[in-house]
């Protein structure tokens, strides 16, 4: 698995402190990329990504994603 950082012009609430951040941690595996908004701010000395259990977080994100995909495909079948 490839891990990395990225920053985006789009801000989202940090999953730890809920503050808007444009910094994301990225996890890439088999062409699937998960981006998790997490503070990484040198100036404010704020590093939420250090205080979070990434494995737990990624698992939850994948569960949510899978649920959404299933929901969408079910809705598509009904149309
Ligand atoms: Zn944060």
Q: How many H/I helices?
A: 1
**How are the strands of the largest sheet arranged?**
1-2-3
Question: Secondary-structure element order, as H and E?
Answer: EEEH
How big a fraction of the residues is strand?
35-45%
Q: Approximately how much helix is present in the residues?
A: 25-40%
C-alpha-based Rg, rounded: 15 Å
Distance between the termini: 37 Å
Assembly type of the chains comes to single chain
Helix vs. strand class: alpha+beta
Ligands, deduplicated: zinc ion
Poorly predicted parts = none
- Label the overall shape: elongated
Plain-language structure description:
The structure is a single chain. This protein is an alpha+beta fold. The chain has one domain. The chain is 32% helix and 35% strand. It has 1 helix and 3 strands; from the N terminus they run βββα. It has one helix at residues 54-78, and strands at 2-13, 20-29, 32-37. A 3-stranded antiparallel sheet has the order 1-2-3. A hairpin with a 2-residue loop joins strand 2 and strand 3. The longest helix has 25 residues, at 54-78. The termini are far apart. The model has no long low-confidence stretch (mean pLDDT 87). The site of zinc ion has 6 residues, from loops.
Short description:
This protein is an alpha+beta fold.
Keywords:
single chain, 79 residues, alpha+beta, three-stranded antiparallel beta sheet, 1 helix, 3 strands, binds zinc ion
